[in-house]
Amino acid sequence: MKNEQYKYSEITSKIIGCAMTVHNTLGSGFQEVIYQRALEIEFSFAGLYFKREFEMPIMYRDVQIGTRRVDFLVEDNISVEIKAISHLDDTNLAQGLNYLEAYNLEVGLLINFGEQSLKFKRLLNKKYKV
Length: 130
What we know:
alpha+beta; Trna Endonuclease, Chain: A, domain 1; five-stranded mixed beta sheet; 5 strands; GxxExxY protein; GxxExxY
């Protein structure tokens, strides 16, 4: 495995820790926006630099064809997508990976607060261009 896969592991671990704190405090059952607001507070306490609902360009052949808001862009490098659904499926995973490719970000997290236990997936963009 390449070292690049671990380049952001400290930050993603910190993000997941913040999400666990939020989930342990609130549990499941709230709308996504409630978890976003709580996570924003935890990120601040953890000293993470982030932008919430940051509008990112969607590129196709180096031409901007639209925009999409990422739930969080952390440390200008990590996309964090929040869900509050009964379970994550392949569609959610594909969406997260597609966003990474469209944004040309190397790493992302897909976090679901809707289950009894917090669920998360670390995402790696294999098409990332430096």
